[in-house]
Amino acid sequence: MSFLTIKYALFLFIAILIYYIFPKKYRWITLLISSYIFYYISSKFLTIFLLISTITIYLAGLFINKINISEKQLSKNIKPEEKKQYKNNIKKQKRLIVLLTIIINFGILGVLKYSGFALNNINHLLSIFNTPPMPIMTFVLPLGISYYTLMALSYVVDVYRGKLKATKNFGKLALYLSFFPQMIEGPISKFDQTAKSLYEGHKFKIDNLIYGISLIILGVFKKLVIADRAGIYVNNIFKTTPHGLPMFLGAILYTLQIYAEFSGCMDIVLGSGKMFGVNLPENFKRPFFSKSIQEFWRRWHITLGAWIKDYIFYPISLSKLNMKTGSFFKKHLPKSLAKFLIVAFPLLFVWLYNGIWHGASFKYIAYGLYYYILIMIGILLAPLLLKIRTKLKINQENIIYKIYEMLRTTLFVVIGMMLFRSHSLMTFIKSFMNLFKKGPINIMDFGLKPFDFIVLIIYIIALIIIGIYQEKGIVIYDKIKKQNIFIKYLIYFVAIISIIILGIYGKGYDTSSFIYGQF
Question: What's the pLDDT score for residue 76?
Answer without folding.
Answer: 63
